[in-house]
């Protein structure tokens, strides 16, 4: 009997998947027709941009920083996608590349001047919002046809959003958790002194991770605007907190280096589906935010429990 | 064989004709309201009107259900997700007051593709497959100048109180006012402030600009700001100009007091929150198989000197003058009357 008790480490890794499964069972119970190809397509297609934003946030959290500008940045990318990328594709592409470069520069600035990332990225969030408003003073614009067609692509049997999320989780997992480079990148967040003493450039790791965050932010914005077909300067402001919650829900921690890409993608899906479940349950909107918070607290409490078990061993 | 086929065809035809005549059977249909914001008196009144009219329609078995859903944070992505959930819940029609005219288009299109009737009102969506119940905000602005031209044929200086900067409604009412001024060139806009559709903000803004202004003959407004303007003029010790009101209870109360005291005359204009009930009936009529034009214009609610008392009596303290639509009135709007 005792041989069957799983190790706390395994429980910890399985927690995001278990919370997602529990949520799916609940949805199946309340609204059986949602558990279908059509239903998953609808419920999860907005999970795709959130998953990208969550991975962007994960990159920053890996190096022990926090990005409070990701929501505004995704909005900015969406605005570019609905204006320049459609009218003058070359200019649009250049601006998006430039935006990634700005992200890399912020990483360098935070490292070189030893600035608190919260302050710098909070400032940047106003910068991105200002750019969005200048670009698109009132909601509108339209996306290039190829982008809208791409995100609405209907794959057979398994919805496109699930395939993309799975591929995203897998690629980032292999790159960050399994490769030698990934170990250095995580180490730069978990134990920067050791990594520096081993002769690796901390500046380079920080710039790499911030640039990656920028790349995933761009993917998030483009997939979002492809779904909505037009943009709004405030379209993704919520993503800042959603992405942080997704990383933490997926098993990441604020101490740097301790992250789980697979868990983060599952966390993003859990948060998206939690909204659907609460809406199916007809919980009054005044309570919905509270209920979302309660789900977070329950998962985190479970994790604290697992951590305690780990320590006891 | 042939005769049998013919008989079958005619029976099918008869059945088809019979079905198309037996209209008004929407008793099995479910309608949802997707609302993006509930944080002010206008939206509260809108939800209350919806509740009142639809619960009666459900009790009368006109529709099976009419549930209201409000998103918590006034965010387009959140409302898009909400609309997708409503599609899955099997509603036959979704009535939307949208957070953004464009950012919901993807979700709206998905609803249309799933065979769901989408009706947007107040905050409308631009997706062509949806119906739109729009307010002619431009006319709301130009009507104010038309009224002033009739009261003050020789014209004068006008102070304009605008709404929340950057919102399309503010732009449109302002454009209407500008058009009205060019139509009646005897009026001149000598100052313009943002009152944010709120009494206290308007009072502060007007008090700030008043010392720099010449004599003001009239104040044009956007609603919710008239009482604040009146208080600012009083505090500055300046004569009260003609202030256009916006149907709020405090504005109507002040107007009534002035009318009783010195025969003060003005007019009041705004959108009735009960426009949500018009949207409900429009959705019901579309489900009923009626031919409804995609773009409807809703008349705004105007209060004049003679119906002030009645309007004030019907308005709750802290509320907005309202009009709830009946099925017949909705049909008249659809017919373009």
Tell me what the structure shows:
The complex is a heterodimer of chains A (313) and B (337). Chain A has helices at 8-30, 37-44, 47-62, 70-82, 84-87, 89-112, 117-135, 145-151, 160-178, 180-190, 192-197, 202-228, 239-249, 261-280, 285-312. Chain A has 313 residues and is mostly helical. In chain A, helix 1 (8-30) runs parallel beside helix 14, helix 8 (145-151) crosses helix 12 and helix 9 packs antiparallel against helix 14. Chain B has 337 residues and is of the alpha/beta class. Chain B has 2 domains: 25-135 and 272-301 and 320-334, 3-Layer(aba) Sandwich (Rossmann fold); 137-270, Response regulator (Rossmann fold, 3-Layer(aba) Sandwich), CATH 3.40.50. In chain B, 46% of the residues lie in helices and 17% in strands. Chain B has helices at residues 2-21, 41-59, 76-88, 105-113, 137-151, 168-183, 199-209, 226-235, 249-262, 275-287, 308-314, 327-334, and strands at residues 30-35, 65-70, 93-97, 117-121, 131-135, 156-162, 187-194, 218-220, 242-243, 268-270, 295-298, 301-303. In chain B, strand 6 (156-162), helix 6 and strand 7 form a beta-alpha-beta unit. In chain B, helix 7 (199-209) packs parallel to helix 8. The longest helix of chain B has 20 residues, at 2-21. Chain B: Its main location: other. Chain B: It is found in: Cell envelope. Chain B: Pfam families: Peripla_BP_4. Chain B: Belongs to the bacterial solute-binding protein 2 family.
Look at the structure and give the mean pLDDT of chain A: 87
State the shape of chain B: elongated
Beta strands of chain B, count: 12
Number of helices of chain A: 15
Q: Strand content of the residues of chain B, in percent?
A: 15-25%
Q: What percent strand of chain A?
A: under 5%
Question: Number of helical runs of chain B?
Answer: 12
**Radius of gyration of chain A, taken over Cα atoms and rounded to an integer in Å:** 20 Å
Radius of gyration of chain B, whole Å? 23 Å
Uncertain parts of chain B: 6-23
Query: Oligomer, anyone?
Result: heterodimer
